Amino acid sequence: MDAHPVISSSTAVDGGSSSRKKQNRKLWASALFLLPAWLLLLIFFIGPILLTFYFAFTNLSLTGSEAQSTQFVGFSNFLNMFQDPNFRISVMKTVIFLLFSAIIGQQVLGFILALLMKEKNPAFRRVIGIIIIAGWVTPEIVVAFCWVAFLNDSGTLNALLQQVGLKPVAWLFTFPMASVIIANIWHGTAFSMLVFQAALDDVPKSIEEAAVVDGASRFQVLYKIVLPMIKGSVVTNMILVTLQTLGVFTLIYAMTGGGPGTSTQTLPIFMYNQAFVNYQLGYGTAISLILLLIGVLVSVLYLKSMKVKV
Amino acid sequence: MKVKSCKKLAAVTVIAGSVLFSSACSDSDSASGKKTAGDKNTISITFRDGGGTNKGLTQWLNNDIIPAFKKEHPKANIKLSPISASEGDYFAKVALMLKSDQSAPDIVTEDTFMVNSDASAGYLEPLDNRIESWDEWDQYIDNVKNGVKAQDGKTYGVPFNTDSRGLWYNKEVFKKAGLPVPWEPKSWDDILTAARTIKKKSPDVIPMWMNSGKATGEATSMQTFEMLLYGTEDPLYDENKQKWIVNSPGLEDTYTFIDTIYKEKLGPNLSQVLNGQGGTIAYTQLMPKGKIGIGLDGIWQAGNYRKDGPAPWPEAFDKLGFTAMPTQKGQAPGTTSMSGGWAFSIPKKSDNKDLSWEFIKFVSSKENNLKLLLKENNLSPRKDVSKEKEYLDLPMFKEASEFLKNTHFRPSVDKYPSVSTVIQSTVEDVVTDKLSPKQAVENYKKNVTRVVGKDKVIER
């Protein structure tokens, strides 16, 4: 937004070669000043990505003879991966985790919360907002511990159940996926809520009122007027939440370690296990590449399906 | 204007912050315990600690070793740089540390099953030349010496402890169930019969505890799977042919035994045993309360019940017995055990190898090794220490030393750590009923073949 005045002020100066020179000099100057930033990006952002591409095609290992003589192995990491039933399981688990904790959970819950809080008493909004945001600002590892304390065999939930005479349940063991999904929703919903709050506040009240006057029901107003108007925010939020959730590692690793068995083994957990538990860094890198690809694919898909430019 | 200056301020803060942050990162010297280059008198030692692990080792280094070593080498400066991590993470962290000149310590403690792997990776210094001129190497038990030899035939570490595994059992639970005390099971069936009897007579007692999940890592492979497998006719690795055995009756029988324990509910709740802390809870909480009948585990568990241990229990050794694990059908030699242990190694990237070697020799002397083991409750790799009265008086040490006669060591092949993780996940899948024993063997075959390569496996 604040780039506009800079451009307009430079173009507003009377035309001719002197101003072009000035502009050129300005361009060089800004390039010079941007250079360190570019270099940093190149070294610390593009570099690792390129390295990842390279390592994904090697048998790089953390220990053992391959650590000393790393070889280029072509596509064999990927072939192994597609034959590995554990990889297929991980993709499935990732999709389930993504669908329920990000797309349905955080997104829908965040929207409902924002909607319910719209135009409510500011004091009420603030108190509720702070409570929900508290879940978001809590570091992931702390969230994991809170939920383990709440759900474990002798945790708070079971203590409460026993108070009312019910049998305790090994939640993290019996419903591991549901447990991590709920924890992730609890942790992430505030972000979606904030995005939707801002978007809903931008919808002019007069339009809604006009629709009501024309005889639209509340649901119709929401569905036909409000949602189309905030479509951009919905897509942006969807992409951000999806990418965020694709990468969730700490929460799951600390709560269930990806287990029991493979029941919460999402791709990041699978990748970590292959790279740092099985010491097969090359294979782990190949998995991370697939994860990256999925992220890109999903983002493009959203953008296409919503036909929105971001 | 106000917004703009705010933004400038924010930008400056971010830049300043990142500069500070990166300078904090580069100050890794203090974190890794590395001294400044060229200092020939300082050596750093990396070992695993935290959460009560290796308390004995830490105390021994601080109270016995460092002051005494400094008397002999007044200029020497010993820096401890322990890693607080779970066992599995420790090995990954050590491998990462050893990769770089910046972070490699001068001495590292390695579980002997990682020595081969890290040596093949070129992380460790061969010690053969140094050992040749060290007259005390003859005192080390041959089996244990093999544990620190890599595939290239060179020796890469000096062991400071070893161990053996067997069956812990609660005599009171056994008496109540009408089972014989002392208990000497002759086959796997005897163990199952005893467990079934306990289940019938004392329903609130867990008849049989064994590590069964991925979370317990190497403990699942070694204390459970290999203790069973090496009691069959088929070991993990064919030493003659130098190939992994990926399909054998022994493998299937091992998975079947594990399956039987959980199918008949002779084991603990899965949520208890598949937890990383499962083993600790079993031996520090459940065992003293008489809630476990039989436990398949190592001699070091005795250390829990010492006066200074995590769960002091004075009458532990009147109430608990430690008996040898029988072979599957009682075939010769009748009992079996697995042994591992830890060793001191010198990283290739250490820049003070001579003083490090002096230090290793010093701590490995008879007196110093004995002092460590009295604190640690592990077995000694030295023959002379194993004859000391003080040592043999430690509870259960006579029994545990006996087990060494028929003990096995893990294959010293650099792929073992990866095979071990396959074992852990298949065992967990059997326990959670995701795989039948037959499917588990197939799964094991497929994954081990993937890890070690098609030309390195055979079927029996």
From TrEMBL, chain B:
Signal sequence span is: 1-24
Keywords of this entry: Signal
| Gene3D superfamilies with a match to the protein in the record | Periplasmic binding protein-like II (3.40.190.10)
Name of the molecule in the record: ABC transporter substrate-binding protein
What is the species listed in this Swiss-Prot or TrEMBL entry?
Fictibacillus enclensis
